[in-house]
Amino acid sequence: MSIVYLNGNYLAEEDASISVLDRGFIFGDGVYEVIPCYGGHLFRLEQHLQRLQNSLDGIRLENPLTDSQWQETIKEVVKRNNDDNADQSIYLQVTRGAAKRDHVFPDKVSQTVFIMSSVMQPVSDAKLKKGVVAITHDDIRWRYCHIKSIALLPNTLMRQVAREAGADEAILNRDGKITEGAASNIFIVKDKKIITPPKNECLLPGITRDLILEIAADSGLAHSEEEISLAQLQDADEIWLTSSTKEILPVTQLDDVAVGNGKPGPCWQDMLARYQEHKKLLRSGDAH
Ligand SMILES: Cc1ncc(COP(=O)(O)O)c(C=O)c1O
Question: In the list 66, 102, 110, 288, which could disulfide-bond 97, CB 3.0-4.6 Å?
């Protein structure tokens, strides 16, 4: 049975409910985070809580909990869902709470705070061996993509287009510049150099993205944060998609054309091995 946290209480998922006037439901007025938990250790919690604060600041909503309260509460959710010792994916969401429907913020805000846990489903070895398929899609989102907003309708629409085209992800193109995936960040490799677009309001600053850049720097691998054009994407030796739950996925087919030789590339293999090494340290409590 899944135990969730809602506004101060730990409840069975089926017993947790919120008002139909919640501004998250009515307006998508809220933000969220997804935090992996490996062997009971939360992955980069500090960075996730900092991004949560940035998202809350971005929508002008006061953080309802201190960092230590977040940590304590998330750890309690992890503990209460730790029946089979599986890795967990923690989802947390803060909305501007329930109020009479009005676009303007209510005078008195009582945030809705919700946390749940799901079992982390690792990407199958078969999928990693073969790589994934991606399509390119016009980036139809708003201008504040650095905010991790729960209003994900454009992302779901673009993911659905990808699914219907037999692809796993849509890679987004805003005015000729590649921003990210519908639910992932993007990297390309060209002549052994790892490249990802710089952080700005057009993309979500992924925690996985930052770790990959850190690993590249620590390992002395050529890397840079620079704009990627559609032509560069199409000409890449390798394309990777990154996110907390999918880690690093190699794209082997883009818009029906093979990427590189159509197989996951050597730089991806090398980076994935380093990433797994980092996770191993995290499991033993030697990394964060
Ligand atoms: C739009 C978007 N970009 C990037 C990411 C990757 O972020 P992270 O590595 O923090 O999971 C996500 C994750 O869900 C996302 O939804």
Answer: 110
Are the beta carbons of 85 and 113 closer than 8 angstroms?
no
Give the model's pLDDT for residue 202.
98
Find, among 229, 251, 29, the residue nearest to 134 by Cα: 251
Nearest CA to ligand 1 atom 4: 184
Taking CB atoms and a 6 Å cutoff, what residues make up the pocket around ligand 1?
A: 34, 180, 183-185, 204, 206-209, 242-244
Cα-to-centroid distance, 40 and ligand 1 (Å) = 22
d(CA 88, CA 120): 5
Domains (ranges, CATH) in the chain? 3-119 (3.30.470.10), 125-283 (3.20.10.10)
Q: What is the pTM of this model?
A: 0.97
Convert the pLDDT of each residue in 253-279 to its tens digit. Answer: 999 999 999 999 999 999 999 999 999
The pLDDT of 126-146, averaged and rounded, is: 98
Residues recognised as catalytic: 148
Which secondary-structure segment (H or E) carries 281?
A: helix 266-283
Distance CA 268, CA 249 (A): 8
Residue 74 has pLDDT above 80, yes or no: yes
